[in-house]
Amino acid sequence: MNVADPGELTEADLHWLRQAIELSRRCPPSSTAFSVGALIVDADGTVVADGWSRRDDPHEHAEEAALARVGTVAGAATIYSSLEPCSARASRPRSCTELILAAGLRRVVFAWREPEIFVDCDGAERLRDAGATVIEVPSLAPLVRKVNAHLASCR
After folding, report:
1. What is the radius of gyration, based on Cα positions, of the chain?
2. Where are the beta strands (DSSP E) in 55-124?
3. What is the 8-class DSSP label of residue 79?
4. Is 8 a catalytic residue?
5. pLDDT per position as a tens digit, 83-138
6. Which residues, 6+ apart, have CB-to-CB distance to 51 below 8 Å?
7. Where does the record place the CMP/dCMP-type deaminase domain (predicted)?
8. Structural domain span for residue 74
């Protein structure tokens, strides 16, 4: 069997990342937080869980919402997030980076590196340092910035 390198960006990755960006449009706008969408997809292409910021709680992050629906992930699943997973939180004790690693996810694909608006984020680096494969897709970042145009610094 010819298996793709986990560090290689695939057409499926682009599809699922676009779907995560679409989910971010469901977020109630906030002047103090990004609108983010996330999907967890297993190795066979089945969506295991989805989430978006402020889905069930005004402080909930997209990755947190998706992970709450799935718990521990068995096998080779990928989390797709429109924004780089956070590495620091003011509203919760654990960052999305910590939650992703604790759930067993070792492949992360995101579109836009978090700008220094609310926190200094280094989620991608922390994930890589912990052994996760991290793929950034900056070509899709303009779509995420557009969703977050309610934040003056994202325009």
Report:
1. 14
2. 78-83, 107-112
3. E
4. no
5. 999 888 777 878 999 999 999 999 999 998 876 665 667 888 999 999 999 999 99
6. 23, 37, 38, 60, 62, 63, 64, 65, 66, 67, 68, 69
7. 11-134
8. 11-121+138-154
Q: What does the alpha-carbon distance between residue 150 and residue 155 come to, in Å, rounded to a whole number? A: 8
Please tell me which residue in 60, 63, 64, 98 is annotated as part of the active site: 63
133 within some domain: no
Measured distance CA(68)–CA(11) in Å, rounded: 27
**What pTM was estimated for this model as a whole?**
0.91
Residue 40: enclosing H or E segment and its boundaries?
A: strand 37-41
Per the domain annotation, does 2 fall within a domain?
A: no
Closest CA to 84 of 59, 66, 110: 110
Token pair for residue 86? 């956070």
Number of domains the chain is built from: 1
Within a domain: residue 132?
no
